[in-house]
């Protein structure tokens, strides 16, 4: 287990290094930060002042050294848009994004794993076809369209839930469901496939011959055997939600997470703030994968150390 954890930590550190270098070079070699961040018609004096403020007057390698030195101390620079530490601005939004992604993932796991189990009981029959069609529909629907339809139906028409903002459980329901449906659809489908494979295994046949019922076989044996692929997919879904879907959902529902902050940073052309957001999002992706790997190792010690 120690070797397993150390290797995963090394892999995570290498990923973060690659992300950091990519962000650094992309924002300096492929774009002109000063040209991007200054308004149209800015004077040469304004551009020179911003160049000096961002430290872009030094050589590229000197900038890289300064960048890593500041990064070690948790300093991503000051947001050009809000004139505040970039990391502090992102940190204020992190709890809301984690709340949204956590609620969406919880709905996906609790609500859709049973659907996959029920679909596997009679593959090819009506219940299986209905559940599979529902899950495929959820996977195929664009989150921004689904969120808009939920707002029109449950907020504007029925008035059950607020359409935007945050402030309690009622504000969380619609964005969490929007995030959960595509995640849950994929989780249900992988649960169904792995469960169908398990039902044909010889140990299940032997358990049935000994008089074990389907419910007892599922709870005592099958679920543990299928949890490794489910957890692996769940970690991918959580990481993808943090780095991708959350941006769309938070924009649709005006949810004050760092996904919405990323859109605002792009609109305000604040590269300093955008760098901090990308780094934090990558850190969460690495952490989610590490937690999933450890959980899989605990559930099934036969998991190989890659």
What's this entry about, in short?
The chain is mainly α.
Instruction: Give the distance, in angstroms, between the N- and C-terminal Cα atoms.
Output: 12 Å
Strand content: under 5%
The total of beta strands comes to 0
CATH architecture designation of the largest domain: Orthogonal Bundle
Q: Tell me, what's the shape?
A: globular
Low-confidence stretches: none
Distinct helical segment count: 12
Give the overall pLDDT as a whole number.
79
CATH fold field value of the largest domain: MetI-like fold
Fourth-tier CATH superfamily name of the largest domain: MetI-like
Which sheet architecture does the biggest sheet show? none
Query: Can you tell me the CATH class of the largest domain?
Result: Mainly Alpha
Q: Which structural class matches the secondary elements?
A: mainly alpha
Number of domains: 2
Percent of residues in helices comes to over 70%
Order of helices and strands: HHHHHHHHHHHH
């Amino acid at each position: 287990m120690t070797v397993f954890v150390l290797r995963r930590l090394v892999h995570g550190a290498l990923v973060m290094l690659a992300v950091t270098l990519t962000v650094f070079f992309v924002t300096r070699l492929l774009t002109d930060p000063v040209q991007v961040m200054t308004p149209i018609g800015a004077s040469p004096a304004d551009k020179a002042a911003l160049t000096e403020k961002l430290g872009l007057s030094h050589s590229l390698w000197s900038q890289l050294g300064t960048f890593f030195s500041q990064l070690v101390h948790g300093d991503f620079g000051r947001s050009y848009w809000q004139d505040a530490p970039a990391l502090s601005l992102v940190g204020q939004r992190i709890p809301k994004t984690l709340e949204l992604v956590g609620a969406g993932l919880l709905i996906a796991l609790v609500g859709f794993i049973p659907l996959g189990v029920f679909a596997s009981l009679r593959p090819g029959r009506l219940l299986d076809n209905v559940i599979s069609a529902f899950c495929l529909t959820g996977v195929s629907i664009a989150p921004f369209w689904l969120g808009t339809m939920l707002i029109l139906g449950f907020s504007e028409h029925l008035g059950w839930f607020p359409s935007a903002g945050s402030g309690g459980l009622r504000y969380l329901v619609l964005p969490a469901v929007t995030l959960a449906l595509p995640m849950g659809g994929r989780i249900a489908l992988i649960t169904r496939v792995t469960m169908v494979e398990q039902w044909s295994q010889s140990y299940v046949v032997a358990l049935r011959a000994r008089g074990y019922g389907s419910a007892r076989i599922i709870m005592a044996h099958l679920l543990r055997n299928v949890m490794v692929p489910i957890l692996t997919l769940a970690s991918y879904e959580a990481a993808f939600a943090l780095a991708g879907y959350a941006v769309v959902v938070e924009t649709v529902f005006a949810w004050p997470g760092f996904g919405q902050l990323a859109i605002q940073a792009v609109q305000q052309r604040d590269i300093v703030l955008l760098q901090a957001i990308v780094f934090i999002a990558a850190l969460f992706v690495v952490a989610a994968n590490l937690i999933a790997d450890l959980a899989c190792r605990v559930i099934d010690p036969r998991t190989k150390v890659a």
